[in-house]
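Request from the bench team (R.T.):
"We need a structural guess for the complex before ordering more flavin-adenine dinucleotide. Sequence and SMILES attached. Just send the tokens back."

Command: build protein-flavin-adenine dinucleotide structure.
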Amino acid sequence: MNHVEYLVVGLGAMGSAALYHLTQQGVQATGIEQFEVGHGFGSSHGHSRVFRTFYDKPVYTELAMASIPLWRNLEAQSDEHLLYQTGMLCYAPPGHASLEQHIRVQASVGGSHDILSSEEVNSRYPALHIPNGNIACLTHDSGFLHAALAIRTHVAQARGGGAEVLEQTKVKGIDLTSRLPEVETDRGRYRCEHLIITAGPWAGRLLQEIDVPLTVTRQQKFYFTPQQRAPFLPEHLPVFCDYMANFYGFPYFGPGVKVADDNLGTITDPVAINRDINLETQAMLKQWLEQVMPETRWTEGEFATCMYTLTPDRDFIIDYHPAHPRVLIGAGFSGHGFKFSTLIGRILSDLAIAGRTDYPIEPFHLERFR
Ligand SMILES: Cc1cc2nc3c(=O)[nH]c(=O)nc-3n(C[C@H](O)[C@H](O)[C@H](O)COP(=O)(O)OP(=O)(O)OC[C@H]3O[C@@H](n4cnc5c(N)ncnc54)[C@H](O)[C@@H]3O)c2cc1C
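Reply to R.T.: structure attached below.
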């Protein structure tokens, strides 16, 4: 039996961040990952994720704002560029209930933003042509994160701080019958003082006995390349989101301009998921891109298959395990967790080490499902 102090199961966006913040707070931490760090089978892989402060609930805007200094601190420590605050432009016809609610929240928390007409958008960003008569909200603090690099950086900094990282090590079961949690892996058994479970779409399997209401959906994102890159680079283009279609796109970053459909895909299972390209979705997104940015020819590029892990209310789960006070759960990030990942890692490490956090996490407690 191995004995470790702080053990993190699952090193995707959340677990890698938790491991980093544990080491930042000076404790001995071990992370276990069933694949390699940065693998492409879960929820966190790929070049980019939207970083938005534009939300329908003030708590998320506040947490997004609170995560900015943590991202900047990680950048300063590592000398990597992770957060690109290009702004994000969200648009819809006037009176769109969701867009209006997001604007109200942005105004209520004092988030920096502009309300623009379609003409103003099209003259400020010549590459973009949003539909005539739409209104848009540009949030200045938003943009995108270099997702793959964020995970690599969290893990590299954690390793540099003394963390042990066990890759290709699968947790087969968790035993909570003793005072200290025990974890059975395919490479031996671990007893730990504190356990953090950040298993993404696999969380439901590891937490079966508490019946956490998680649904996993299959989502795909697609890259397209224009004839010329320059007009679409992050210096010239914000992240953009069409609230009517629920489609969104990024500036040119990595292998092209990435676009995705935020509508929920089919319900799946992380083991049995079909990773084949959905040509229908690709064609639909290309058609949308041709309307939004019509002044170039777009060519199909890479695609990736990914999973959302949804709670019934699409709010996160950040809480102690109801059966064991030394076990924390970070799960159900419902397709919008990445931007907060460094902060969630900080919150989980605060809860594990100090038993409390200053960040507002009441909406994420498990008791709301009881
Ligand atoms: C297509 C798509 C687009 C998205 N866009 C955005 C966006 O623009 N902005 C945003 O903020 N969020 C976005 N998200 C959501 C965000 O990416 C996720 O909320 C976040 O990545 C979840 O991270 P995680 O650590 O919970 O899960 P994961 O990254 O899946 O990590 C879980 C880890 O646990 C490991 N694991 C599981 N079980 C075991 C086991 N038994 N033993 C050992 N290891 C185990 C897995 O291998 C995995 O590495 C998007 C998600 C998808 C799918």
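Two things stood out. The pocket of flavin-adenine dinucleotide is lined by residues 9-15, 32-35, 42-44, 49-50, 170-171, 198-202, 206, 219, 221, 260, 306-308, 333, 335-339 (CB under 6 Å). Residues 196 and 328 are 5 Å apart (CA to CA).
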